[in-house]
Amino acid sequence: MTRSRSKLTQARIVLGIAVLAFATFSVLVPDFLSAGNVSRLLQNVSILGILAMGMALSIIGRGIDLSMVASMAVSVAWMLAEMNTGASFAHAFGFALLFSIAVGVINGVLIAYVEIPPIFATLAMGTAIYGFGRVFLLASDVNYLPDDWQWLNTIATAAPLGIPVSVLCFAAVCGLGHLFLRGAREGRYIYMMGDNPQAARITGVPIRPMIVGQYVLTSLVALVAGLLMAALVATMNTRIVGSTYVYDIILVAVLGGISLSGGRGGAGSVIVGTLLIGILLNGMTMMNLGYTTQNVIKALILLAALTIDSLVNPRDEQTSQQGDI
Amino acid sequence: MKITTKLVTASALCLAVVAGPLAAQDASPSAGFYNALKGKKIGFVPIAMGFNETQAWRIAMERQGAALGYEVIVRDPNWSIEAGIQAIDSLIQEQPDILIIENIDNRSYNRMVQKSIAAGILTVQTQQRSEIPSDAYMGPDWNEMGRNAVEGMVQACGKDSGKNGKVAIIQGALTAPASLLQMAGIDEALKNHPEITVVSNQAADWDATKAYQIATTVLQQNPDICGIVGFWDVADAGIASAVKEANLQGKVAVITSGSGARESACDKIAAGDFSHYTSYNTAGQGRDLNAIIRTLLQTMPEPGSKPFDLVSPLIRITKENMTPSSCWTLEELAQIGG
Asked: Which of A2, A126, A146, A218 shows the greatest Cβ crowding within 10 Å of its Cβ?
């Protein structure tokens, strides 16, 4: 805990870069600073931010969930497919919910009890979930929100008090995430597991059930993000599973200072990482920079943040942990 | 006079009765037609089976295959180039009579197309053309798609519209010929329309969420924009959402294109989500593919010797000219496709 009070944490470095980027764009791009644009800026990254909060839960506990995007896409696409056959909301949503929980439980059991490293277990699960969904649950990749359900789109695109619903969702998920990680006993356990699983076990943390719980939570957060995504654009295209989206999610989490070796960071890190990416994407789009240029700049800034962190907080025998990725 | 008329009518009827079956016999396909197709093997490697373009082609080909007694083998590489190359390679080993390849871009499958032709297999390419010609190409002229998009822009935002002519373009994947050639078509056609200014040109990678994000930013930055052009209806649902969200539906034209599937096209045109739509009509493409199969199997040219194109005729759909038959569904195609 002393660490966060000390000097330059990675979150603070990134926050600094974000402020710098914000200032730069405010000068370079007219209208960048308008209230409307700032809310759009947040809105455009809120789904990414929600997913990053879910990813943070597993990374802090020294895991990672590469199946998150598959779980999100298939559960929500299944929900839409059920809606299209005329199913009630409770029925369709119930299926999606059960599917997400099942994915989390299987991930957790594979990692905690079968002891497969998380990166491999969830990588394989991602492929398995998508394959299972496409073979047994979904007739096609693209699933549309049926007409009777367009009110979901109306809700998702609303902006009470000028704050878009997706930003409110992001704030809520981060708030809950923060309360859970800092307030709940299980939240503290996740930090202990991430910091030193052996020590955590000796002190009586029920590591295996906790790991299962952690992946169920991640999968449920993915469901929330998926619902928002489907409601916003009125479709769910499961092809997103094959994209590099999951790396963007990890990027946001890691950028904000959630160490891949576990035990570090929190909801604040997710918010900072999301903000930086949001500012960059919004500013670069407004400057009409090309897609490839945007990717290069994004990658360079990530590398810069990691480099600064590595210089300011060097790894040594004490801080490096067994099982580092 | 009356009697004569009656006589003439009667004799005409007699003739018709007698000649009818005769004429039908004469016009009936030769036994050669059925023999040429019966027991043949068609291999099909799409980009992926999970979307309605490829499903529509498959339904059409399988319907004709069932009627004429040939087999259609589908190998789904699910968007992976490596898996696609393996699928094509394994199909070449199985020596189908025709191999139909949907290119993922303009060069990844070049060597496989060459290999297939060298193995003596009639080779057909669909939707996007590789650099190597084969026996047939079936797909839209993407340049023309781009020119159509410009016509949509001019209609919505051009001289006679009274609007300011500001449009944004949200492309597909920058490296895909479907995107590159459409953009080239747009650039070419825009030369004649200096009143149209492109204020933003971005790529959304065929993804609805990305298209939505870009569109919200563009709308924020240019609230007076007149139209947004997208390159694929499925992704452009995201543009429509952004426009709706900004309360600009009906004010900002959404110009898009795609397969003409009911739920991604006509339903959204009816709802006012899309204002101008260019369809390459995948239902018609299925019929074209079947025509290619029937033609090649009957004429059996030396593979690669006489390449030809069946360019998909485009349909322009707006709310005003839309009819129940402007779009298609997979259920309908299962009954009448091909």
From this structure: A218
Q: For residues B102-130, give the mean pLDDT.
A: 93
Which residues of chain B neighbour A285 with C-beta distances below 8 Å?
Answer: 200, 202, 213-214, 217-218
User: CA A168 to CA A223: how far, in whole Å?
Assistant: 16
Q: Whose CA is closest to A308, among A34, A85, A12, A38?
A: A12
Q: Tokens 């390159």 belong to which residue?
A: B231
Domain total in chain A? 1
What is the span of the domain harbouring residue A272? 8-312
**If you search the block for the tokens 């995504």, which residue do you land on?**
A229
Among B213, B167, B239, smallest CA distance to A37 is for B213
Q: Nearest 5 degrees, angle CA B163-CA B166-CA B168?
A: 140
* Closest residue, chain A, to B49 (C-alpha): A140
**Residues A230-250 as b or e (16 or more Cβ within 10 Å = b):** bbbbbbbbbbbbbbebbebbb
Q: Which residues 243-272 of B are in CB contact (within 8 Å) with A?
A: 244-245, 263-264, 267
The helix (H) or strand (E) run that includes residue A23 is helix A10-28
Closest CA to A137 of A85, A96, A78: A78
Q: What percentage of chain A carries pLDDT values higher than 70?
A: 94
At A63, give phi and psi (nearest 5°).
-130, -165
Contacts of B244 in chain A (CB under 8 A): 153, 157
Show the tokens assigned to B209. 């969420």
Q: Hey, which residues does B122 pair with through a beta bridge?
A: B98
Domain hosting B211: range is 142-279
Q: Which residue of A240, A286, A292 is in closest CB contact with B207?
A: A240
User: Residue A249: which CATH number?
Assistant: 1.10.3470
Tell me the CA distances in angstroms from B40 to A29, B96, B102, B278, B296, one per residue in order: 62, 8, 20, 35, 12
B172 and B275 share a domain? yes
Tell me which chain A residue has its CA closest to the CA of residue B271.
A147
Q: Are strands B308-311 and B315-317 parallel, antiparallel or unpaired?
A: unpaired
Domain-located, residue A323: no
Report whether B148 contacts B124 (CB < 8 A).
Answer: no
Q: What is the DSSP letter of B108?
A: T
DSSP string of A143-194, one letter each residue: EEPPGGGHHHHHHHT--GGG--HHHHHHHHHHHHHHIIIIISHHHHHHHHHH
Closest residue, chain B, to A225 (C-alpha): B209
Kindly state whether residues B251 and B158 are assigned to the same domain: yes
**What digits encode the pLDDT tens for the residues B232-271?**
999 999 999 999 988 899 999 999 999 999 999 999 999 9
Q: Are residues B86 and B186 in the same domain?
A: no
3-state secondary structure of B205: coil
* pLDDT on residue B313: 96
Smallest Cβ distance to B238: which of A233, A281, A282?
A: A233
Q: What is the per-residue burial (b if ≥16 Cβ within 10 Å, else e) of A110-141?
A: bbbeeebebeebbbebbeebbebbbeebbebb
C-alpha–C-alpha distance, residues A285 and A299, integer Å: 16
